[in-house]
Amino acid sequence: MSLPTTPAEWEALYYAASPELRAEIDALLEADLAHHIWRAQVGRQSEAADSLAFVTGYGGAAGGGKSDLISGLALTEHKRSAIFRREKTQTEGIIQRLTEILGSTSGYNSQKSAWRVGERLIEFAGLDNPTDHQKWQGRPHDLKAYDEVTEQRETQVRFTMGWTRSNDPIQRCRVLMTFNPPTTTEGRWVIDYFGPWLDPNHPNPAKPGELRWFTTIRGKDVECEDDRPFVLFRGEPLYDFDPSEFSPEKVITARSRTFIPSRVTDNYFYVRSGYIQTLQSLPEPLRSQMLEGDFNAGVQDDPWQVIPTTWIDAAMARWAPKEAPSPMDSMGVDPAAGGKDNMTIYPRHGTWFAKPVRIPGIEIPQERAGPIAAAKVIENRKDRAVVHADVIGWGLSCCNFLTANGVQVVPVNFANGSKGTTADGTLKFVNLRAEVIWGMREELDPQNPNPIALPPDPRLRRDLASYRWELRPAGIFIEPKEQQKKRLGHSPDDGDACCLANLSTVKAEVWEEMQANSGGYDPYDDI
User: InterPro entries under this entry (predicted)?
Assistant: First the structure.
């Protein structure tokens, strides 16, 4: 007979025991609680508490003891903890749980949003405003806990994680992210972050609790074989190197990551309280999300979302790699220089979009942004494709260098007015930004007889689903890019570049041939 491994199995064993054995078990539990103010429940919660991963994702369904895990670890395993929610007032649930465990609010300072328990410090924070993460720059904690992380911006989470450290060499440092399946498209970044565990299409899936190692190279998460240090040589990891030949900041060590699912059935106390019945009464898709932890259950689109997520998914499902695609017709380019934004390039071959080319802005010095960005375009251009480039900001210099080198380029200023209308001719556009982005919506419409195929890229999926619109007297208006960046926490470089690639402009040589065949007559004069 195997030993019990879940709270329900332990409870069954307890009630099957004799009265004398139950009394002995009760005495042992009372003695244990006298020395330990909190212990993780047997099962998934214990697995998460004991995991050796630097970043642990925990949850997947309601009632799995996520807030309890954060509270318990902060009180028993860590000296300096920071607990984040989207809004600081939402940390009240953690504060209430800490009060239950400790039996009072002694040591809690509501004005400073901090709690001192002996030598331990627990701080509470919100990441609601786009600049809130900057308040935590340089402030070290050995536990960074993000409760309901799907409600928080990925960039702010990654930024604040950067100071997960301790001056005590024997103190365990870690990041804990707890969450249910996201209910909005903005929260789906966690599925990409924990891809091996949560993405059903991941090429190398992982088991619950299995450790994987990741680092960031050129602004992109890269999975490594293990935590062996390496350096980049010609853009590739080199493990066999002489440490004396490289400065410490050039040596990269991947950090471990895992995800451990939990359900309400893993929580002994909630099972006994009848919470399962409460979750069973929820409407779909919330029922599947909160009760079963189904990350594939329907995420609700925003009512003013320009492009429905199902349309994007259908276009990505149509995509397949091609060794010899048709000639390249168009390139969409969103230039960048310096900073954290990428320069992003999307090539289009007819109705088939190739995988994006991303160059971290930090690799393009601002003082030479024009020629370097133009060179990146030329490197990836084929078949004399027309380049459609965002001209705002660094794009103007890039376009000037491309033109000077004989590249057919169409500068696109999203702020310019629009003369276009929707495909049915009923609505106008406030500006060119609205026309270009709405044009992508019309291409992705299931009613389109010539459907396009988009590469199944998580970042592109998030960007295309993030555009919001409203109807004004002058026509369709799309949320400004700066406002969109504040809401998302990142620039929609992929979405903008892909929408630009969707534009169609006649190639110069085709135009010249048309004019030659018409005897100099401009075939567009009558349009």
Answer: P-loop_NTPase
